[in-house]
Design goal:
Length: 116
């Protein structure tokens, strides 16, 4: 059996069974990464990297997306020249039922309280 051809533009993602709670919590502990996840959850669809207006440099933004991808929180794929980002909600909900919703709810309540 031959291996599937992997494009140089394919990005590595952990398989569902490789996603660890510690990695997810670490990824979501940063305010910028939590902001990215909140935006993806609110839209409920994929967004390109350019759709996020973060108050950090492009290289820092790239780092945040990489941390989220490597933790298994988001999936990134290229569609043409755009790198699209989608929340791995099914995987996260299957592995850690209620965690994502609880974190998103807590983040929304905090944002309302502190005005973020």
């Amino acid at each position: 059996m031959t291996s599937p051809v992997v494009s140089s533009r394919d990005l590595p993602h952990p398989a569902r069974e490789e996603i660890r709670l510690e990695s997810v919590l670490h990824a979501l502990s940063d305010p910028m990464r939590l902001r990215i996840v909140r935006e993806l959850a609110a839209v409920g669809d994929e967004l390109s990297c350019s759709r996020f207006d973060l108050p950090v440099t492009k290289s820092t933004t790239t780092h945040h997306f990489r941390v989220l991808r490597e933790a298994g929180v988001i999936r990134q794929i290229y569609r043409g020249t755009a790198k699209m980002n989608g929340l791995r909600r099914d995987d996260l909900d299957g592995l850690f039922p209620g965690l994502l919703d609880a974190l998103l709810d807590a983040a929304a309540r905090q944002a309302a309280r502190v005005g973020v």
